[in-house]
Specification:
binds the ligand O=P(O)(O)OC[C@H]1O[C@H](O[C@H]2O[C@H](CO)[C@@H](O)[C@H](O)[C@H]2O)[C@H](O)[C@@H](O)[C@@H]1O, EC 3.1.3.12, disordered N terminus, alpha/beta, Rossmann fold, globular
Protein backbone atom coordinates (compact mmCIF):
# COMPACT_ATOMS: atom_id res chain seq x y z
CA UNK A 1 0.00 0.00 0.00
CA UNK A 2 1.46 3.45 -0.88
CA UNK A 3 2.23 5.85 2.01
CA UNK A 4 -0.53 8.33 2.93
CA UNK A 5 1.62 11.37 2.44
CA UNK A 6 4.27 10.73 -0.21
CA UNK A 7 5.23 14.44 -0.13
CA UNK A 8 6.72 13.95 3.34
CA UNK A 9 8.94 11.03 2.34
CA UNK A 10 12.64 11.82 2.01
CA UNK A 11 13.60 10.61 -1.49
CA UNK A 12 16.55 8.29 -2.00
CA UNK A 13 19.70 9.57 -3.71
CA UNK A 14 20.61 10.27 -6.42
CA UNK A 15 17.89 12.90 -6.57
CA UNK A 16 16.19 14.42 -9.57
CA UNK A 17 14.88 17.98 -9.40
CA UNK A 18 11.37 16.63 -9.76
CA UNK A 19 11.79 14.31 -6.76
CA UNK A 20 13.35 17.06 -4.70
CA UNK A 21 10.54 19.56 -5.36
CA UNK A 22 7.91 16.88 -4.73
CA UNK A 23 9.47 15.99 -1.38
CA UNK A 24 9.70 19.70 -0.53
CA UNK A 25 6.08 20.52 -1.37
CA UNK A 26 4.84 18.42 1.56
CA UNK A 27 6.87 20.54 3.99
CA UNK A 28 7.25 23.87 2.17
CA UNK A 29 6.12 25.89 5.19
CA UNK A 30 8.98 24.37 7.21
CA UNK A 31 11.60 24.71 4.50
CA UNK A 32 14.42 27.29 4.25
CA UNK A 33 15.96 28.19 0.88
CA UNK A 34 19.56 29.48 1.10
CA UNK A 35 21.39 31.17 -1.75
CA UNK A 36 24.96 32.21 -2.29
CA UNK A 37 25.19 35.49 -4.25
CA UNK A 38 28.16 35.76 -6.68
CA UNK A 39 28.15 33.08 -9.36
CA UNK A 40 24.84 31.70 -8.07
CA UNK A 41 22.19 34.43 -8.11
CA UNK A 42 24.38 36.82 -10.11
CA UNK A 43 26.61 36.06 -13.10
CA UNK A 44 30.30 36.71 -12.50
CA UNK A 45 31.80 39.87 -14.01
CA UNK A 46 35.08 41.79 -13.86
CA UNK A 47 33.80 44.53 -11.56
CA UNK A 48 32.46 43.23 -8.21
CA UNK A 49 30.57 46.49 -7.64
CA UNK A 50 28.64 46.23 -10.91
CA UNK A 51 27.15 42.73 -10.84
CA UNK A 52 23.38 42.28 -10.71
CA UNK A 53 21.08 39.33 -9.97
CA UNK A 54 20.20 37.32 -13.09
CA UNK A 55 16.83 37.92 -14.78
CA UNK A 56 13.80 36.43 -12.98
CA UNK A 57 15.77 35.86 -9.78
CA UNK A 58 14.33 38.72 -7.72
CA UNK A 59 10.72 38.02 -8.67
CA UNK A 60 11.11 34.32 -7.95
CA UNK A 61 12.78 34.93 -4.56
CA UNK A 62 10.03 37.28 -3.49
CA UNK A 63 7.35 34.77 -4.49
CA UNK A 64 9.18 31.92 -2.76
CA UNK A 65 9.56 33.96 0.43
CA UNK A 66 5.77 33.95 0.68
CA UNK A 67 5.61 30.16 0.33
CA UNK A 68 8.49 28.66 2.32
CA UNK A 69 9.51 29.26 5.95
CA UNK A 70 12.42 31.53 5.01
CA UNK A 71 14.57 32.65 2.11
CA UNK A 72 18.12 33.68 3.01
CA UNK A 73 21.18 34.96 1.16
CA UNK A 74 24.46 33.61 2.57
CA UNK A 75 27.39 35.47 1.06
CA UNK A 76 30.95 36.67 1.50
CA UNK A 77 29.66 40.17 0.63
CA UNK A 78 28.81 42.65 3.39
CA UNK A 79 25.14 42.89 4.41
CA UNK A 80 25.04 46.51 3.17
CA UNK A 81 25.87 45.29 -0.34
CA UNK A 82 23.27 42.51 -0.18
CA UNK A 83 20.67 44.98 1.09
CA UNK A 84 21.13 47.10 -2.04
CA UNK A 85 19.99 44.13 -4.11
CA UNK A 86 17.52 42.31 -1.85
CA UNK A 87 16.45 44.96 0.69
CA UNK A 88 13.26 45.69 -1.22
CA UNK A 89 12.11 42.06 -0.98
CA UNK A 90 10.06 41.22 2.07
CA UNK A 91 10.89 38.08 4.03
CA UNK A 92 14.47 37.65 2.80
CA UNK A 93 17.18 37.29 5.47
CA UNK A 94 20.76 38.37 4.76
CA UNK A 95 23.94 36.75 6.09
CA UNK A 96 27.05 38.69 5.04
CA UNK A 97 30.81 38.13 5.40
CA UNK A 98 30.30 34.38 5.89
CA UNK A 99 27.88 35.08 8.74
CA UNK A 100 29.96 37.67 10.62
CA UNK A 101 27.03 40.01 9.84
CA UNK A 102 23.32 39.32 9.50
CA UNK A 103 20.03 41.10 9.08
CA UNK A 104 16.66 39.42 9.60
CA UNK A 105 13.33 40.46 8.12
CA UNK A 106 14.57 43.87 6.97
CA UNK A 107 16.07 44.73 10.37
CA UNK A 108 19.41 46.42 11.06
CA UNK A 109 22.78 44.78 10.58
CA UNK A 110 24.07 42.76 13.53
CA UNK A 111 27.83 42.15 13.62
CA UNK A 112 29.50 39.26 15.42
CA UNK A 113 31.09 41.09 18.40
CA UNK A 114 34.21 38.89 18.45
CA UNK A 115 35.08 40.07 14.93
CA UNK A 116 34.89 43.82 15.62
CA UNK A 117 38.45 44.21 16.99
CA UNK A 118 39.67 43.13 13.52
CA UNK A 119 38.31 46.20 11.72
CA UNK A 120 41.52 48.29 12.08
CA UNK A 121 43.66 45.32 11.00
CA UNK A 122 41.58 44.90 7.84
CA UNK A 123 41.72 48.62 7.06
CA UNK A 124 45.52 48.59 7.43
CA UNK A 125 45.75 45.45 5.31
CA UNK A 126 43.67 46.94 2.48
CA UNK A 127 45.84 50.06 2.48
CA UNK A 128 49.03 47.98 2.37
CA UNK A 129 47.62 45.79 -0.43
CA UNK A 130 46.90 48.85 -2.56
CA UNK A 131 50.42 50.12 -1.99
CA UNK A 132 52.32 46.84 -2.49
CA UNK A 133 50.41 44.71 -4.99
CA UNK A 134 50.98 45.22 -8.73
CA UNK A 135 48.59 47.22 -10.92
CA UNK A 136 45.76 45.00 -12.10
CA UNK A 137 45.06 43.66 -8.60
CA UNK A 138 41.68 44.78 -7.33
CA UNK A 139 41.58 45.26 -3.56
CA UNK A 140 38.08 44.96 -2.10
CA UNK A 141 37.88 46.17 1.51
CA UNK A 142 34.83 44.76 3.31
CA UNK A 143 35.36 46.07 6.86
CA UNK A 144 35.89 42.60 8.36
CA UNK A 145 37.71 41.03 5.45
CA UNK A 146 39.80 41.95 2.42
CA UNK A 147 39.46 40.29 -0.98
CA UNK A 148 42.39 40.45 -3.42
CA UNK A 149 41.11 39.96 -6.98
CA UNK A 150 43.14 39.12 -10.09
CA UNK A 151 40.32 38.36 -12.56
CA UNK A 152 41.34 41.02 -15.05
CA UNK A 153 45.04 39.98 -14.93
CA UNK A 154 45.08 36.23 -14.24
CA UNK A 155 48.88 36.15 -14.63
CA UNK A 156 49.04 37.86 -11.23
CA UNK A 157 47.50 34.83 -9.47
CA UNK A 158 50.72 33.47 -7.94
CA UNK A 159 51.99 36.88 -6.84
CA UNK A 160 48.69 37.93 -5.26
CA UNK A 161 48.14 34.56 -3.57
CA UNK A 162 51.67 34.46 -2.15
CA UNK A 163 51.36 38.02 -0.85
CA UNK A 164 47.96 37.24 0.70
CA UNK A 165 49.19 34.08 2.41
CA UNK A 166 52.23 35.90 3.82
CA UNK A 167 49.97 38.63 5.24
CA UNK A 168 47.65 36.01 6.72
CA UNK A 169 50.64 34.44 8.52
CA UNK A 170 51.88 37.84 9.69
CA UNK A 171 48.51 38.95 11.07
CA UNK A 172 47.01 35.63 12.16
CA UNK A 173 44.19 35.77 9.60
CA UNK A 174 42.39 32.98 7.77
CA UNK A 175 42.58 32.52 4.02
CA UNK A 176 39.54 31.75 1.88
CA UNK A 177 40.16 30.72 -1.73
CA UNK A 178 37.63 31.78 -4.34
CA UNK A 179 37.11 32.41 -8.02
CA UNK A 180 40.11 34.51 -9.18
CA UNK A 181 40.36 35.88 -5.65
CA UNK A 182 42.02 35.22 -2.34
CA UNK A 183 40.27 36.55 0.71
CA UNK A 184 41.67 37.25 4.18
CA UNK A 185 39.31 37.08 7.13
CA UNK A 186 39.49 37.08 10.93
CA UNK A 187 40.49 33.92 12.80
CA UNK A 188 37.70 31.74 14.16
CA UNK A 189 35.46 29.09 12.74
CA UNK A 190 32.79 31.34 11.19
CA UNK A 191 31.92 30.06 7.73
CA UNK A 192 28.86 29.27 5.63
CA UNK A 193 28.62 25.81 7.20
CA UNK A 194 28.19 27.33 10.65
CA UNK A 195 25.51 29.72 9.32
CA UNK A 196 23.52 26.81 7.90
CA UNK A 197 24.03 24.60 10.93
CA UNK A 198 22.48 27.28 13.16
CA UNK A 199 19.81 28.50 10.75
CA UNK A 200 18.20 25.11 10.05
CA UNK A 201 17.66 24.15 13.69
CA UNK A 202 13.89 24.75 13.56
CA UNK A 203 13.39 23.67 9.93
CA UNK A 204 12.26 20.36 8.47
CA UNK A 205 13.89 20.97 5.12
CA UNK A 206 16.46 23.24 3.47
CA UNK A 207 17.95 23.82 0.04
CA UNK A 208 21.33 25.46 -0.48
CA UNK A 209 22.35 26.87 -3.88
CA UNK A 210 26.05 27.69 -4.40
CA UNK A 211 28.86 27.77 -6.94
CA UNK A 212 32.11 28.18 -5.05
CA UNK A 213 34.35 26.11 -2.78
CA UNK A 214 33.19 28.07 0.29
CA UNK A 215 29.67 26.75 -0.41
CA UNK A 216 30.76 23.13 0.04
CA UNK A 217 30.80 23.71 3.82
CA UNK A 218 27.14 24.72 3.61
CA UNK A 219 26.38 21.52 1.72
CA UNK A 220 28.21 19.57 4.43
CA UNK A 221 26.10 21.23 7.13
CA UNK A 222 22.92 20.05 5.39
CA UNK A 223 24.33 16.53 5.05
CA UNK A 224 25.24 16.51 8.74
CA UNK A 225 21.75 17.66 9.70
CA UNK A 226 20.25 14.85 7.59
CA UNK A 227 22.50 12.33 9.30
CA UNK A 228 21.26 13.50 12.71
CA UNK A 229 17.60 13.67 11.72
CA UNK A 230 16.19 11.12 9.26
CA UNK A 231 13.07 13.26 8.76
CA UNK A 232 15.06 16.28 7.61
CA UNK A 233 15.36 16.91 3.87
CA UNK A 234 18.51 18.71 2.67
CA UNK A 235 19.01 19.48 -1.02
CA UNK A 236 22.39 20.77 -2.25
CA UNK A 237 22.40 22.50 -5.63
CA UNK A 238 25.53 23.55 -7.53
CA UNK A 239 25.50 26.32 -10.10
CA UNK A 240 28.07 25.20 -12.64
CA UNK A 241 31.08 27.18 -13.79
CA UNK A 242 34.40 26.29 -15.42
CA UNK A 243 36.47 27.96 -12.67
CA UNK A 244 35.73 25.59 -9.80
CA UNK A 245 35.75 22.57 -12.10
CA UNK A 246 33.57 19.75 -10.85
CA UNK A 247 34.37 20.16 -7.18
CA UNK A 248 31.14 21.89 -6.20
CA UNK A 249 28.97 19.77 -8.52
CA UNK A 250 30.47 16.59 -7.09
CA UNK A 251 29.39 17.65 -3.60
CA UNK A 252 25.85 18.56 -4.75
CA UNK A 253 22.66 16.61 -5.45
CA UNK A 254 21.75 18.67 -8.51
CA UNK A 255 23.62 20.99 -10.87
CA UNK A 256 22.17 23.98 -12.70
CA UNK A 257 24.02 25.42 -15.68
CA UNK A 258 24.22 29.11 -14.80
CA UNK A 259 22.67 31.93 -12.72
CA UNK A 260 20.38 32.63 -15.69
CA UNK A 261 19.20 29.00 -15.66
CA UNK A 262 18.69 29.32 -11.90
CA UNK A 263 16.23 32.18 -12.58
CA UNK A 264 14.17 29.77 -14.68
CA UNK A 265 14.53 26.96 -12.14
CA UNK A 266 13.26 29.16 -9.30
CA UNK A 267 10.37 30.44 -11.39
CA UNK A 268 9.37 26.81 -11.94
CA UNK A 269 9.80 26.20 -8.19
CA UNK A 270 7.23 28.89 -7.43
CA UNK A 271 4.69 26.90 -9.48
CA UNK A 272 5.76 23.58 -7.98
CA UNK A 273 5.41 24.80 -4.38
CA UNK A 274 2.34 27.01 -4.71
O1 LIG B 1 29.88 34.24 -1.18
P1 LIG B 1 29.69 34.93 -2.49
O2 LIG B 1 28.46 35.76 -2.54
O3 LIG B 1 29.75 33.98 -3.66
O4 LIG B 1 30.97 35.90 -2.66
C1 LIG B 1 32.24 35.38 -3.08
C2 LIG B 1 33.08 36.51 -3.63
O5 LIG B 1 32.28 37.11 -4.64
C3 LIG B 1 32.79 38.29 -5.28
O6 LIG B 1 33.88 37.93 -6.10
C4 LIG B 1 33.51 37.08 -7.17
O7 LIG B 1 32.55 37.75 -8.00
C5 LIG B 1 33.05 38.96 -8.63
C6 LIG B 1 31.88 39.62 -9.38
O8 LIG B 1 31.33 38.75 -10.31
C7 LIG B 1 34.20 38.60 -9.56
O9 LIG B 1 34.73 39.75 -10.19
C8 LIG B 1 35.30 37.89 -8.75
O10 LIG B 1 36.32 37.42 -9.61
C9 LIG B 1 34.72 36.69 -7.98
O11 LIG B 1 35.71 36.12 -7.11
C10 LIG B 1 33.14 39.33 -4.24
O12 LIG B 1 33.71 40.43 -4.89
C11 LIG B 1 34.04 38.77 -3.17
O13 LIG B 1 34.20 39.74 -2.14
C12 LIG B 1 33.40 37.53 -2.55
O14 LIG B 1 34.32 36.97 -1.63
Amino acid sequence: MPPNNPGDQRPLRPLTADQAWRATSGRAGRCVLFFDFDGTLAPVGDDPTAVQPAPKVLAALEALAGIVQRVAIVSARPVDFLREHFGALSGVDLYGLYGLEHSHSGGGTVTEPAALPWVPTMAELAERARAELPPGTLVEYKRLSVALHYRTVPALADTVEAWGRAQADRLGLRVQAGRMVIELKPPGDQDKGLVIDTAVRDAACAWYFGDDVSDIKAFAALRAREDRDPDFLGVCVAVANPETGDEVSRAADLTIDSPEALGDFLTEAVHRLS
